[in-house]
């Protein structure tokens, strides 16, 4: 994986379709990104979970393009695609065939039910031990053609049917997706919802030892096809550290809430502690298509004796801080206030979570860009987007508050905003400095009201200082002949040079 920023975007919500994404990357976003994570572009892109419930995981939704468009993107950018491990849509041909033909279906055994995990019945304690990211039990009644009713395992929504990935049809299904990705020149695979992929009676059914074994073996299969693997898991931070040793890449999901905590409380203590222990084979994010993770910094929900990076009071203050700075709009999209809810995330754009403060926002992005790993920038975050209350009101889906559909007219205006121009200039600078950001990294010894970070190579040093009490940033770039100090938005914009 190139150590250059990546864009995260839906094919249809930023630029209309896959060709539009390519035009953006080669036009107004040129030079800012070495890769692009195209969020699910399979049939359909607009299901019950915005593409994360594929009915056909091997076909590009014709409304956004085809595999030729993915191959074209891969010609000058690394392409990451989602492989949804845990589930398929209840409208998939495989599930419909199984409901229609039962044991005569070639897909018999592909779908998990209550009885397939608990063949001898499910005691109350065993059911209570199951970890689910939504309230309630992970089961949905489904009616088979023969008149019987089954309890399908549905970890997320009732429309997303969990797969038995250890069954022969389950393994064949996943293999068909890997082969489609190979043909499409996908170079990075994001394993979505893999933490829930293996179920065992009497366990939490989340990140159990068998899950780690599956991830290791499946990642090796992807590597054989020339693809690296990014594992997507929201969960206890120690588990992230453990799994990082077994795969190519993990998300640093603790970074977004810890950066907010540092700004809210004016102290870098916990953030610096995280830098001491975090894995370095990370993709760094501040925002994604999901909400801002809370479980990633909290105590282990399955064993609260395993303490979090933040204590309970600090977690509560973090959540309250997001709601306050967003003017209460994040509350409308979080928890019981919205459907498709998650118990471990707050739904809000990162720009809103920092009170629409351009300096604070760019300081946060500077921290992200300096953190070891490959930075990914979500399309709404790239444009310093605000909470989309109209879309939230239209769909009632909490995460849609951070999934705006940009029109061409909007894009033209947003790209001219100083905060967006400054962020693009920062990303272009980051892309140009391969040698520097493959050099030596250090967290500087500062007082708690600051966070200091430095990268050094043979020819250059870049030092970042972020003031958490006065909300300021200072970037010092030193090479053999020149020294540049950047501490304003205009200064960041100037990193693009005179033509920027």
Radius of gyration: 23 Å
Q: In the CATH hierarchy, what is the class of the largest domain?
A: Alpha Beta
Count of separate structural domains: 3
How far do the termini sit from each other?
Answer: 27 Å
Shape from CA axes?
globular
Mean pLDDT: 94
Spell out the CATH superfamily of the largest domain: Glycosidases
Major beta-sheet overview:
8 strands, parallel, barrel
What proportion of the residues form beta strands (DSSP E)?
A: 15-25%
Low-confidence stretches: none
User: Under the CATH scheme, which architecture of the largest domain would be assigned?
Assistant: Alpha-Beta Barrel
Instruction: Report strand order across the widest sheet.
Output: 1-2-5-10-11-12-13-16
Number of helical elements = 20
Structural class: alpha/beta
Helicity range: 25-40%
Can you count the beta strands? 21
CATH topology of the largest domain: TIM Barrel
């Amino acid at each position: 994986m190139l150590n250059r920023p990546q864009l995260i975007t839906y094919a249809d919500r930023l630029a209309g379709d896959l060709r539009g994404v390519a035009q953006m990357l080669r036009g107004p976003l040129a030079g800012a990104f070495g890769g692009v994570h195209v969020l699910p572009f399979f049939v359909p892109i607009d299901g019950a979970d915005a593409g994360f419930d594929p009915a056909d995981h091997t076909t590009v939704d014709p409304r956004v393009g085809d595999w030729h468009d993915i191959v074209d993107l891969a010609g000058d950018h690394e392409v990451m695609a989602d492989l949804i491990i845990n589930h398929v849509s209840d409208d998939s041909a495989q599930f419909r065939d199984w409901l229609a033909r039962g044991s005569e279906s070639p897909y018999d055994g592909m779908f998990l039910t209550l009885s397939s995990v608990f063949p001898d019945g499910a005691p109350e304690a065993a059911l209570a031990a199951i970890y689910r990211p939504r309230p309630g039990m992970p089961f949905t009644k489904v009616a088979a053609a023969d008149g019987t009713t089954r309890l399908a395992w549905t970890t997320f929504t009732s429309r997303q049917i969990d797969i038995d990935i250890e069954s022969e049809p389950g393994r064949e299904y996943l293999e068909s997706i890997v082969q489609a990705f190979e043909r499409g020149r996908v170079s990075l695979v994001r394993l979505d919802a893999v933490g829930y992929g293996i179920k065992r009676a009497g366990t939490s059914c989340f990140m159990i030892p068998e899950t780690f074994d599956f991830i290791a073996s499946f990642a090796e299969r992807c590597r054989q096809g020339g693809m690296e693997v990014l594992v997507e898991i929201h969960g206890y931070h120690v588990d992230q550290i453990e799994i990082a040793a077994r795969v190519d890449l993990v998300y640093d999901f603790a970074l977004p809430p810890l950066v907010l905590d540092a700004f809210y409380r004016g102290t870098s203590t916990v953030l610096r502690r995280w830098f001491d222990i975090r894995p370095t084979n990370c993709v760094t994010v501040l925002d994604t298509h999901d909400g801002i993770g809370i479980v990633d910094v909290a105590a282990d929900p399955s064993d609260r004796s395993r303490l979090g990076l933040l204590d309970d009071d600090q977690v509560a203050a973090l959540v309250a801080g997001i709601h306050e700075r967003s003017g209460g709009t994040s509350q409308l999209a979080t928890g019981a206030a919205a459907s498709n809810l998650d118990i471990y995330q707050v739904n809000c754009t990162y720009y809103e979570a920092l009170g629409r403060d351009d300096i604070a926002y760019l300081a946060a992005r500077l921290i992200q860009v300096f953190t070891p790993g490959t930075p990914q920038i979500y399309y709404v975050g790239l444009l310093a987007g605000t909470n989309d209350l109209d879309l939230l009101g239209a769909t009632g889906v909490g995460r849609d508050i951070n999934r705006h559909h940009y029109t061409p007219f909007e894009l033209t205006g947003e790209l001219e905003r100083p905060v967006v121009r400054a962020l693009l200039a920062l990303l272009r600078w980051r892309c140009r400095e391969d040698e520097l950001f493959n050099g030596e990294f250090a967290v500087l010894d500062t007082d708690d009201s600051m966070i200091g970070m430095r990268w050094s190579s043979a020819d250059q040093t870049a030092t970042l200082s972020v003031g958490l009490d006065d909300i300021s940033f200072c970037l010092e770039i030193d090479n053999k002949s020149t020294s540049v100090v950047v501490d304003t938005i205009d200064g960041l914009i100037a990193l693009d040079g005179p033509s920027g």
